[in-house]
């Protein structure tokens, strides 16, 4: 992968960045996403944020190599602290991290999202946590995609600011309103794998010396939810 040849996962993230956006890509690593979008004339400016010095140097190098330092600023910063008011950022992308970390990044400097109208998030795991964050922080899911690449399954969640977002039940938060409605082959395969994995975890937990009742109930609920959804979509 490079800035001219994004992975399918990152290409989908890119496709949800609006034309003319001012983008902050948080956890940018090589800055492939903002560089790609700037080269293709999609973004008119932005920030490539990184908290680790090595990847930050990679981002800086990539931006300079492509002659894009007037458009994209690389910043060594923790999460949304990479965003300054003068950047006029309206779109934030966070891709390739766990859902808990993405949620932590968005929560800990939430005020930095003041001018942001769109979030494009790609949690590697923990999508439910991210959906719950969006629903409770004034962001409405407007699109979801699921992609299988290199033996992994990734979900891309796109949300726009909305004063009163739709309130989802636990099932919708787990499976995703758009992904559930579409229930394509990748979605079904993901949840069949998750059912097998969770059933195995339950078996191990139940065979423990002291069985943790709360954990057993949590796993049983999840298994029941997955079975119901798979049955409903005819899988
Ligand atoms: N976003 C790119 C992608 O999707 O291909 C790179 C993903 S890479 C697996 C995750 C990056 O996030 C790493 O470079 C890591 O240093 C960075 N990161 C992790 N926590 C961060 C934080 N709190 N603030 C900024 N960057 C962070």
UniProtKB/TrEMBL annotation:
Domain of life: Bacteria
Keyword field: Methyltransferase, Transferase
A GO molecular function held by the record: tRNA (adenine(22)-N1)-methyltransferase activity
One of the GO BP terms on file: methylation
PANTHER family hit by this protein: TRNA (ADENINE(22)-N(1))-METHYLTRANSFERASE (PTHR38451)
Name assigned to this protein: SAM-dependent methyltransferase
